[in-house]
UniProtKB/TrEMBL annotation:
Residues 162-196 are annotated as: Disordered. Its main location: cytoplasm. SUPFAM superfamilies: HSP20-like chaperones. It comes from the Eukaryota. GO terms for molecular function: unfolded protein binding. This is 17.1 kDa class II heat shock protein-like. It comes from Nicotiana tabacum (Common tobacco). Pfam families: HSP20. GO terms for biological process: protein complex oligomerization; protein folding; response to heat; response to hydrogen peroxide; response to salt stress. Belongs to the small heat shock protein (HSP20) family. Residues 43-160 form the SHSP domain. One of its GO terms (cellular component) is cytoplasm. It is found in: Cytoplasm. Residues 162-183 have a biased composition (Gly residues).
């Protein structure tokens, strides 16, 4: 932004005053919940400007993120809320060196600033099996899949005839029998059997 303002003929001392004014405006708007914060806007822009591919393999998901100009130690990969994969990094300009050596950009098309991407992981993603590799400005994050759950088999319950095949009826209309342990059962309820 500084370079664009200088190109428009703004005095460098005015640029500092403009930054202070914008910072004050940001602090004011951050206090009001109806306006998005400066951080939210910056993160949204960073997410839009960070290209990525998501690939599904039979046993894993792969997230391929372009992060040109960064070194592996400048890239961060972490989980938020147990299922949101976050990839971030920042590509900074060497402003102090540029000003000190009198370097002036005539054209700037390459992007500097924050790189950010968030992915909501599917339910079958194994968050304990995540690996990341970085080469030639490309980050590849692999998240293994959990094996599919085995289908539940119905539990078969053996039906036994009470009393070893002997049953008798009483005048009360209920069935009397003896369970395997010798306990008497009447009308399906263990306990004493009353007879008339």
């Amino acid at each position: 932004m500084d370079l664009a303002l200088r190109d428009l003929g703004f005095d460098p001392s005015m640029i500092g005053a403009l930054h202070d004014m914008f910072d004050f405006m940001d602090e004011t708007t951050e206090q009001k919940p109806q306006h998005p914060s400066r951080t939210y806007i910056r993160d949204t822009k960073a997410m839009k400007a960070t290209p990525a591919d998501v690939i599904e393999y039979p046993n894993a998901y792969q997230f391929v993120v372009d992060m040109p100009g960064l070194k592996p130690d400048q890239v961060k990969v972490h989980l938020e809320d147990e299922n949101v994969l976050v990839v971030s990094g920042e590509r900074k300009r060497e402003k102090e060196k540029e000003e000190k050596e009198g370097i002036k950009y005539l054209r700037m098309e390459r992007r500097f600033g924050k790189l950010l991407k968030k992915f909501v992981l599917p339910e079958n993603a194994n968050t304990d099996a995540i690996s990341a590799a970085f080469q030639d400005g490309v980050l590849v994050v692999t998240v293994e899949k959990r094996p599919p759950p085995e289908p539940k088999k119905p539990k078969v319950i053996e039906v036994k005839l009470l009393g070893g095949g002997e049953s008798s009826t009483t005048g009360g209309g209920g069935v009397q029998a003896t369970e395997g342990g010798g306990q008497q059962v009447q009308d399906g309820i263990p306990g004493e059997v009353k007879t008339d």
